[in-house]
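User: For my dataset I need records formatted as: sequence, then structure tokens, nothing else. Please produce one.
Assistant:
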Amino acid sequence: MIEAETKKRPSWLRRAWLLLMRVIALFLMFSVVMTAVYAWVPPPVTWLMLWRVVEGNWIHKDWESYDNISPNLVRAVIAAEDAKFCEHYGFDWESIEKAWKRNQNAKRIRGGSTISNQTAKNVFLWPDRTYVRKGLEFYFTGLIELMWSKKRVIEVYLNVVEFGPGIYGAEAAAQAHFKKSAKDLTRREAALLAAVLPNPIRWSASKPTSYIRGRAGTIQARMNDVPDPTGDPCAKALPAN
């Protein structure tokens, strides 16, 4: 009798397992729906933006379509952040392997992030360097690569990425640093904006240090290796079938 009652009554472990399965199912459903929505609708706000508000920096951003952003800036961020952007499906495995080996003895996790990885992080996740967040970043990267075009990936990236305290996206950055529209950025201005991306709180595109000026010069040189991104960043980069 006691054994029968034990079998009939669900254990706390079973209840916890069922709850976990429901939470995972809801998360998967929500993440797929939001990724599908953001394939067409501009993300209104990100976790980083909200975090910066708590720190005292208001949100300055103006969404611009891909065609209203200078090809110079597209070239610059690809040259600076992800030279293989048009070749991979969200993951640069060679860079990831190098980063993994480097992180084995490092106190701070550094990744081999692609533009797709950074877009997934910026749009859906919070800013830290834990393995949990990295794992979720991989998941969302897979989703956006599956559901978005490469053009959409970089369009979203250029509209949500942080270019300074409270400054998000190409248009707000161009206005704040150079008093002009994002579509009018020169090669040098684009390279300066791309140069500060690793740490836009510490560095300024409009008041560059000698290090940032040098880095911008390197990016300008690498921009020559990036095919013309006008219309579509990868249309001219991929070989014809």
